[in-house]
Amino acid sequence: TEVLVSCCEREEKETLIEKYHGMRFATPHYDGYDNLLVRLTDATTEQLTDFLDISYLIKAPSSLAKQITE
Description:
Number of helices: 3
């Protein structure tokens, strides 16, 4: 299965796993980290775009993230 690693807020991780019914998931390797895996075959282009945008906003320096959100 082809997967993509995406970032999320750690406190939202379990909620996102439940919300996306297996499309977004974690393995023991990612326990304690703010990352989720995404099954590429199950995600739409729009969902992938959203997941990548969110990942960028989480990891980007605040000065760059601010430019995107303005």
